[in-house]
Structure formats: structure tokens, C-alpha cells
User: What shape does this take?
Amino acid sequence: MTKYVLAIASLMACATMSTPAWAMGAAAKSVQLSKVMLDTETSEVTGKLKVGTICMLSGKFQVTKRKQTLNYEHFDTLFSDKMKGMGFVVLSKSSDLFASEQDSSKGDYLIGAVIHPVEENVCSSVNGMKGSLSVNIDWQVYDRAAQKIVFSTTIPGQGTVEKFQRDGGSQLINQAFVASLETLAKQGALAPYLGTPH
Assistant: This one.
């Protein structure tokens, strides 16, 4: 049976609390994306695949089980644009042509994410792809000074592409990632470490 890995294939190709910074009267701290991983092993991914411009149901939906580190620069751009737009101090390694691996080039806090696809319902045709994707993302915040994880949580995210798009699969995962990140920030979970956005 053919195994369909659509938006997820595009993706592949592509809490313990510490002392709040604001409580100590400290200035806003910088943050940097550390790593993004895809995990289709831990939990089952459900969904439906339809094909053609009239979206006829086709075949059994299956996803290859794996854990994989994803393209850093792609997600770093999404992360940086969204976080800067919300007023956080962000260090973006991919936008720096002279970035090094030295600690001095990293943010005060590092954030890592593990994406767990939950449900994917898509239609694929010669015109591209449309549909929806739901994910759960495990977020971890690492304090470089304390050298430990200071916060972790899991937040859902969803992407929807209503019309056929050539990069529909990428759009779905991009939207889901950004939606989860936005919820994380708006819940105030990052404020104790990064300060209040301005």
C-alpha cells in the first residue's frame, strides 16, 4: 500500500519554574530558537487523503514513523519574525551572515520544539494541495546561565489552506507552528523569563 506523507513530507524535506527576570528587576532577556524536531513515533497520526481537483478519497493514509531534526533556518525565520512582531528580543542565527558557534552569539534563553502531527486531512492535485493539519508542539525553554530547562509545555496548533497551492504542504506546517508559538507567547508563559513584550 502506498504510504502518503504529504504536509508532513514537506515538513521533513524542508515545568519547572525559576526566578522570574522581571522579579529581579532585570532588563528584557533575549531568546533564540535552538532546534525543531518532528516526531511521528510517539503518537498515531490520523487523517484522510483525497486526490484530484474534485478531491476523490484515495487509498489508506499512512505516515512513516520517525524522529527527525528539521531545517533550522526555515523555522528560525518563522520563529524570529513572529516573536519580533510580538515585541520580544530575538537573536536570529540564520539572518546573521557572520554568526559563529560561540556562546556569545546565543540568546539568554534557548527555545526548542518537538512537533507531533495529530491529524492531516488534505487533497492533492496537479494544482497543488489544500486541507488542514493539526499538531501538538512540545516547547522547552532553556536558561543558558542556569544551564537547565526552566519551563516546558505542550500547545496545539493548526494550519488550513482553503484553495489549492503549490506549496500547500509547507503552508500547513508553517501555520500550525506559528499558531502554537503565538499561543505560547500570548498565554504569558514566556514573560517570567523574557520580560513583557514591548
